[in-house]
Amino acid sequence: MLLIFRILLVIDSSTVQLREETYKRTGLLEHKEDEEKRKVGHQVAEDYANNGNVFENIND
How far is CA 39 from the centre of its chain? Predict the structure, then answer.
């Protein structure tokens, strides 16, 4: 059972590495990171518009 788990873990980590390499080659990784930054920026702007204080939610 442990051997099967280890094999599956190796296959999964290899798949993740291959996916990341593909993203790097095609430029999709940068696009994904930019999208995440954009989402955070929109959330900060929305919090400021609603509350007037961006850092108010951090202390909760």
Answer: 11
Helices (H), strands (E): how many in the chain?
A: 2, 0
- The domain segmentation of the chain, as residue ranges, is 18-50
- For helices 28-51 and 2-26, the axis angle rounded to 10 degrees is 90
Are the C-beta atoms of 47 and 60 separated by less than 8 Å? no
pTM listed for this prediction: 0.36
| Tens digits of residue pLDDT in 21-56 | 877 777 766 666 667 777 777 676 677 666 765 555
Integer CA distances (angstroms), 45 to 35, 37, 40, 60, in order: 15, 12, 9, 18
